[in-house]
Amino acid sequence: MKTSAEEIENRIAEIDPEEEFLAVENAGGDALRIYIDYPGGVSLETCQKVTGGLAELLEKHTLEVSSPGPRRPLTKPAHFARFDDNNPLPAKIPLKLINNFMCLTGHITLKLFSQLLR
Q1: What pLDDT does residue 69 have?
Q2: CA–CA dist 113, 118 (Å, integer)
Q3: For 36-82, what is each residue's pLDDT tens digit?
Q4: What's the pLDDT score for residue 9?
Q5: Is-contact 62 30, C-beta < 8 A?
Q6: Which residues have CB under 8 Å from 97's CB, separation 6+?
């Protein structure tokens, strides 16, 4: 099994279509940290099931499978769908201003976020 995010996402979907792959990152050395989500929350059993289903990766890597907790990464357009003008997204947004950086902290709506990306 390859270690690309796409391959890991596809394998997790085969293990259980309700499990959602969020991200993979290098956790140092040969370790991979894989973040997942599951309707109703991620349990120890969910993490064990995913780890077992990714057994091919265990031949070359140490795996850490977990939930990202409340700081879930928003990596796909569908992740933003639950936020709207009535339910704004808490955000910390770095903005580059010529040679300086400024960081805005607060709540952002999907409408404002899409305007910032233009």
Answers
A1: 79
A2: 9
A3: 988 888 999 999 999 999 999 888 999 999 988 776 766 676 666 66
A4: 92
A5: yes
A6: none
Dihedral angle, C-alpha 110, 111, 113, 115, nearest 10 °: 160
Tokens 């290098």 belong to residue: 26
- The CATH classification number of 5-71 equals 3.30.300.70
Q: Which residue has the higher pLDDT, 65 or 3?
A: 65
- Measured CA to CA, the distance from residue 74 to residue 23 in angstroms comes to 10
The one-character DSSP state at 85 is T
- The two beta strands, 31-37 and 62-66, are parallel
Query: What average pLDDT does the structure give for the chain?
Result: 77
Please identify which residue in the block is written with the tokens 């040969």. 30
Under a CB-based contact definition with an 8 Å cutoff, are residues 53 and 35 in contact?
A: no
Q: Would you state the structure tokens that stand for residue 111, as one six-digit string?
A: 């409408």
| Residues 6+ positions from 23 with CB-CB distance below 8 Å | 5, 34, 35, 68, 73, 75
**Residue boundaries of the structural domains of the chain:** 5-71, 77-116
- Alpha-carbon torsion, ordered 30, 36, 41, 43, to 10 deg: -30
